[in-house]
Amino acid sequence: xxxxxxxxxxxxxxLHLGHYVGSLRRxxxxxxxxxxxRMFVFMAxxxxxxxxxxxxxxxxxxIIEVALDYLSAGLDPARCTLYIQSQIPELAELTTYLMxxxxxxxxxxxxxxxxxxxxRNFEANIPVGFFCYPVSxxxxxxxxxxxxxxxGEDQEPMIELTRELVRRFNQVYREVLVEPNIMLPENTTAxxxxxxxxxxxxxxxxxxxxYLSDDAETVWQKVKGMYTDPLHINLNDPGHVEGxxxxxxxxxxxxxxxxxxxxxEFKTLDELKAAYTHGxxxxxxxxxxxxxxxxxxxxxxxxxxxxFEQDVPEIFNILRKGSEDAREAASQTMDEVRKAxxxxxxxDAALIQQQAEKFKK
Length: 361
What we know:
Tyrosyl-Transfer RNA Synthetase, 2 domains, mainly alpha, 361 residues, 5 strands, single chain, two-stranded parallel sheet, 16 helices
């Protein structure tokens, strides 16, 4: 069986550091290692419309933003297939078939869906498309027979539902689809990066993001205002690193080389944590370190983005070609799906012959 990676993002805005540590950084690493037969990365515009149906322009404008973030982060269209979800109609067809294999109560139990519903104040009026997007996500994965899904920790319930639907399909019809495995970030701290305000999740809708395309001054303004330790009032007060967003970000991004270059008093993050916990380390000095770490990491991404921005028509050509390649792959799976479900009527010579014999006089 081929080893296939599939992952993507909703094009509702530019990508931020949460996306980067949650999966984007790992995608680039996996692409460059070349251990997989194929890699698909897509913009989930259909899923984005489930809670933006009245504002399609928002999605339309952000397709290019996400594509630029992908390319500037290091995804290479020569080594991975970049495509737009809505351009693959086979995905909608497979979603319909999978909907018949899952109950409403099963979807309702999905903790990720519950969280998203609360975030969007959908408790009383949930759009059907939004409610069913976990099934759509399962179709996105199954259509390409993906074996590995590099995502953040919050997506685990989604992948488990996908696995259930694949098993159900294969049991009811025939072994066609492939159960995927989740690939979480190697850095456990980065599995759920908090927002700059210290809230549980970095989210575009909450306005607590640092974007991959932010310039150095914008990054500094956001880092300067980050949530730290509310009990660390005076310099000599013992500090707390648990729940302190600055140290969570340092866990996700800082290297020993960063300390050597930006704060040589400490060799490692563990040494800084010990000193901060003991007292005598100011929050602003920690924020200045974090600012240097983030800007060092983002600078080459910004430079590549600027270069790609000079030829936007070519970006759309990349997406068109990728969508064509992706549709070809999904079409092959759907041929197998229809045959397994016995709805490939025009290709079923035995059925045609049987019906012809049935009505002969």
